[in-house]
Design a protein that fits this description.
single chain; about 70 residues; mainly alpha; 2 helices; elongated
Length: about 70
């Protein structure tokens, strides 16, 4: 599959702002011009990644405050 979009931005998984920006980003940003069926498919695929991003941030935050 060809790369549709590329960005030089690399989000920091320890930065709450970066994690929130990813989690709150509208699904349409990942599939511009897509119809409802495609948006539903994107939601299904990206939901686990968003959950993992929050989990990793919470763990990093817990470790940071434990030290």
């Amino acid at each position: 599959m060809a790369n549709v979009y590329s960005s030089g931005f690399t989000p920091d998984p320890h930065d709450a702002v970066d994690v929130l920006a990813f989690v709150l980003c509208p699904l349409e940003a990942f599939a511009p011009g897509a119809g409802p069926d495609e948006i539903a498919a994107v939601a299904e695929m990206i939901a686990p990644a968003k959950e993992e991003a929050v989990r990793r941030w919470q763990e990093a935050n817990r470790v940071r405050h434990a030290n």
